[in-house]
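Extended Data, panel c. Modelled sequence:
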Amino acid sequence: MLDERAKKILIAVVESYIQRLDPVGSRHIAKKYGFDLSSATIRNVMADLEELGYLFQPHTSAGRIPTDRGFRFYVNNLLSNEPKINTLFIKELARRLEDIRDSIELMLERTTKSLAALTHYVSVASHPFEGDTVIKKIEIKKISSSQVLFNFETAEGITKRRILDISTPLSQSELNEATRYINSRFSGYSVKEIRELIFNEMTKEKIICDALISKSIRLCREALLVDDMLFIHGFSQVFELPDFFNISKIRELVRAIEDKHLILNLLDELIYKSNGMKVIIGNENQIKEMHDFSIVASTYYEKDRPAGAICLIGPKRMDYAKAISMVRSVSEFITDVLSRRRRHG
């Protein structure tokens, strides 16, 4: 247990290090915070905090920097205080999302872009496509000669999107024909039921005879097999931070995030076990490549059930107060939008 003086000095060291990156000395704390303590007294307290594992001194003539344990104390202190909602950010976000409230995918896409731009961290959001979701209508649109877009409208009025690569170009008229068949066959069934129906359909010779319908059903099956979607933005912003002058750290982050199974598993842990706000610091992360990073994440809800997660990934020296406020604000905003849309649907 730390006494109040040690707590104040530890928090001051962490905040100073977040703001300036350089090791923090006792003179800086005395000058900026005062605490009615001499520089020598502050230095002694900092030495005690180092012995307890909260601070680290790179070399004898330098100041001190927080360890993972020091950051953890600081974050726990933030989380124990009254939750802060970034009202200005939420108002601006609401304005940006006003025209796309019927599509959770577009909302998450635009939200992650906004979070990344405002924080300079990597922003990630997930949204599960659950097996019991009932599909009301399916629409297939041509994007290019090599890609098509699937729009799935659920019984709750939510639109889910999938973009798929195709090896053989299809015209929009061909896709329209495929869309009519797929809707006549699968509308009103759950995702799980459609997967089973598609499997049975693909075993019938009469489907194989029609190449267009066969290909469309295979694409539909592929779209519905993607259980989770990830929205990721902010790589260019985070690379500009001084924390990542070491290119190897950047490569580790890219490798970890590009392996979507790792990120999805991590977000699943947050969604279904943490059930709310969660901050993972450095070595606390189960992903080895992310031990130099921290994650601030929060669950958002749909129909009173965990539906997905919003998170920010940045250096351990990230501005936790800002990140926690923004992520918490976004998750509550998305939850509120989904709740109101369901009531009015």
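The chain has three domains: 4-80, 87-129+228-344, 135-225. This feature is highlighted in the accompanying rendering.
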